[in-house]
Amino acid sequence: MPVAMWDFKHCDPKRCSGVKLSRCNMLKTLKTSQRFRGIVASPVGEKAVSPADRRIVELYGAGVVDCSWARIDEVPFSKIRGPTDRLLPYLVATNPVNYGKPWKLNCAEALAAIFYITGYPEHGEALLAKFKWGHAFKKVNGGLLSRYAKCKDSAEVVQVQNDYLKQLEEDSERKEE
Prior knowledge:
Domain 16S/18S rRNA aminocarboxypropyltransferase Tsr3 C-terminal: 39-165
Shape: globular
Distance between the termini: 49 Å
Protein name: 18S rRNA aminocarboxypropyltransferase
Number of helices: 7
Domain RNase L inhibitor RLI-like possible metal-binding: 1-35
Largest sheet: 6 strands, parallel
Structural class: alpha/beta
Keywords: Cytoplasm, Ribosome biogenesis, rRNA processing, S-adenosyl-L-methionine, Transferase
């Protein structure tokens, strides 16, 4: 199954999970002008990735835009934007740089999330197996990933995410009381 990344070199290549996956021949680095027909984890997506994207992942794979949120305005999204750009739902990072931070996934985690949610967990696990911390991603996010994988479409994924976030907020308020 194809796995691809547009690398805007915003992070340290020694710590970049996408660069490591590329060195291991587990993903292909694309040039800005190259198109990719698979599902792409991108901050400009308009829908959340969901099991409805399974067929696209099966046929064309998964990709990621590797960029820093702090430098997002430097990324030429108009050149790489496609009809299969997707947002990722709420998940917690387990990589050493952003451990425990929600929505701060690195490339490997983002790609694995796409595979888990669309019904190809073995592909996600294969990517994460290249990292010492990789097993923690499923351990921390397994329940949510499984709930997202049972949804029928993007709207349902967003509803599951919002219900989960509401529960977290209520639990936090109860602890404060």
